[in-house]
Amino acid sequence: MNQLEQIRIFVELVRAGSATQAANRLNLANSAVSRRLKELEARLGTQLLHRTTRSMTLTEDGRAYFERCVQILDDLDEAERGLSSRASELSGRLRIAAPWSFGVSHLVPAITEFMHLHPKVLVDLDMNDRRVDLVAEGIDVAIRIGELGDSSYIARKLAPVSHVVAASPDYLQRFGRPETPDDLAHHQGLCYANLKAPGQWLYFDQSGQRCSVKVPIRLRASNGDALRHAAIAGLGVLCEPSFITFQAMRQGLLVPLLTEYRWYQMGIYALYPQTRHLSPRVRGFIDFLSQRFGDHPEWEQYLPEPPQKSRG
To answer: Which positions fall inside the HTH lysR-type domain (predicted)?
Structure first.
């Protein structure tokens, strides 16, 4: 078997996570996939995968080889498409990873519009709030929100996001309206579980000083939509990104609170692996998202203006 076929089998094996799944995708026997891997490792003189009966992980050499193999196959794929179609026509499969709440409410409408504009583009979309390994899972681009901790990827900011403190009119009628951030210590908090300190809410006061308040946690959830539903039902106060809350505020289901303070700010980013070049379909998709969302996305346009200070 030639080197290119060995590379294809190896890459598919890593992406599938098991020889059985890889064999099904490649229409090969399970034993053939395992045999090809052993032949590849023997030819290279190094172990590429740690294998047990239940799991399979890349060795350090295996990860480096896998990254190069993915690039080789992408380059070959682009070269062949370039010969058969116009350079301006985007085509091929685009593998995208995105968080659930933003994916459903904002990314899916953007993807469908992009696919209408480029009918030859195929999309695999994985919506999950976990952090994915772009290289190991064969992801072309991941949408991430918040702080970026992994410098091994290239990041491009797509749009800003502000946090908003809000509660339902019913909750405020029963428990009163907080007048300062410190008042939140006496309210029921609806908190996002995937933060390091879910009940510690960060903000900047009028002088620009960075502050925080500890909020009692009534409900902790790993999904912002769940917290929004709980807030609308009058269960407590939340501090969530504007793209999750702005529609409910627009409809009067949630009331923005403490708007004279600037709550936690973050960004929405497109992340992709460091490669020699970015494929036209990935670059085109990222450019499209940047233009669609931009510096003034719809979820930021509804943010209430801070109250004007009275002139004494």
So the answer is: 1-59
Confidence of residue 301 (pLDDT cuts 50, 70, 90): confident
List of E strands, 128-185:
141-145, 153-167
Residue with tokens 């908003």: 164
Torsion of CA 187, 225, 248, 230, to 10 degrees: -40
At 83, list the tokens: 């010969």
Look at 227 and 275; give whichever has higher pLDDT: 227
Q: How far apart are CA 106 and CA 115, in angstroms?
A: 15
Model pLDDT for residues 175-215, shown as the tens digit of each residue: 999 999 999 999 999 999 988 899 999 999 888 889 999 99
Q: Which CATH superfamily is domain 161-265 in?
A: Periplasmic binding protein-like II (3.40.190.10)
Residue 122 phi, psi (nearest 5) = -105, 145
Of 202, 196, 176, nearest in space to 188 by CA: 176
Instruction: Please report, rounded to a whole number, the percentage of residues in the chain having pLDDT higher than 70.
Output: 92
CA distance linking residue 41 with residue 240, whole number of Å: 49
Q: What is the CATH number of domain 92-158+266-294?
A: 3.40.190.10
How many CB atoms sit inside 10 A of residue 148's CB? Answer: 14
Residue 209 φ/ψ, nearest 5 degrees? -75, 130
- Residues 240-278 pLDDT 10s: 999 999 999 999 999 999 999 999 888 999 998 886 567
Residue 69 CA to residue 52 CA, distance in Å, equals 23
